Amino acid sequence: PRDIEKFIHSANACRIHVEHLHLHPIRLSLTFTQEWSRRNQETEGFVFFQIIRGMASISEAPLTFTSFVVSHAFESPTSLMGIISAHYSSQLMSQLLSIIGSLAILKAPA
According to DSSP H, which parts of 2-69 are helical? Predict the structure, then answer.
């Protein structure tokens, strides 16, 4: 019994209780303007720089994130930050792919 109490205490030692956490929706505008520069031999081989060089500009593309609400959470701060990060990063990735899909390079406005 004593060992079980120690195990339970150590497992819960770094956890925090959050009665209610509400992060409100976020709205941002994304603008990307291509600045033409001379080709750099050091970056020429990287595919990423070739893609960036070929991208069209983006003007005030909306990025919207839904609210994050949790009640009576009992997690470690690291775990809670991971959950919040996953919530927003999945939305960001989806929206960025949507913006890339509608770029002028693909003959559709962003």
Answer: 2-12, 47-54
Tokens, residue 75:
């997690």
What letter represents residue 92's amino acid? L
Element holding 13 (H helix, E strand): none
Question: Which DSSP helix (H) or strand (E) runs through 60?
Answer: strand 58-65
- Is residue 69 helix, strand or coil? strand
Is 97 strand, coil or helix? helix
Give the CB-side neighbour count of residue 104, counting CA atoms within 13 A.
Answer: 10
Please name every residue paired with 22 in a beta bridge, in sequence order, or none if there are none: 69
CA dist 110 and 97 (Å) reads 11
Return the amino acid letter for 96: L
Q: Which of 98, 103, 5, 9 is nearest to 56 (CA)?
A: 103
Answer yes or no: pTM beyond 0.85: no
pLDDT in tens, 55-77: 667 788 899 999 999 999 999 99
- Distance, in Å, from the CA atom of 101 to the CA atom of 67, rounded to the nearest integer, reads 25
